[in-house]
Write a structure and sequence with these properties.
Radius of gyration: 18 Å
Strand order of the largest sheet: 2-1-5-3-4
Order of helices and strands: HEEHEHEE
Bound molecules: FE2/S2 (inorganic) cluster
Distance between the termini: 58 Å
Shape: globular
Structural class: alpha+beta
CATH topology: Ubiquitin-like (UB roll)
């Protein structure tokens, strides 16, 4: 391969080391917004960055107003579960946006599982 061919390839596919995990917000199959993952930021905070609103009330894991459904990825659960969640809801994918801390790439459906 000539030096000229290498340059042409680099022009078409620039080196990019900025690939970061993404938090995506959907309603069913419709993508509403997405934002880069930031460690320590809640789902609600990521949603604000993405221009998406998750309703909130208590902002402490108690009321369940911010309940969403985890479709893909990891949002670890506190132990014990907060009052706004129970085992049945968790089994259906429920997470609380106000206290849920994503761990890398996640897809979140804004609709609660019930
Ligand atoms: S706003 Fe009440 S549980 Fe999240």
């Amino acid at each position: 391969m000539s030096a000229h061919a290498v340059e042409a390839t680099l022009d078409l596919e620039p080196f990019n080391d900025e690939v970061r995990p993404v938090v995506r917000f959907l309603r069913g199959p419709h993508l509403l917004g997405q934002t880069p993952f930031v460690s320590g930021r809640t789902l609600v905070e990521h949603a604000i960055e993405a221009g998406v609103e998750i309703p909130t009330n208590c902002t402490s894991g108690t009321c369940g107003a911010c309940m969403v459904t985890l479709m893909l990825g990891e949002v670890p659960l506190p132990d014990p579960l907060p009052p706004g969640l129970d085992d049945f809801l968790v089994d259906e994918g429920a997470r609380l946006g106000c206290i849920g801390l994503p761990d890398g790439d996640v897809d979140i459906d804004l609709r609660p599982p019930i």
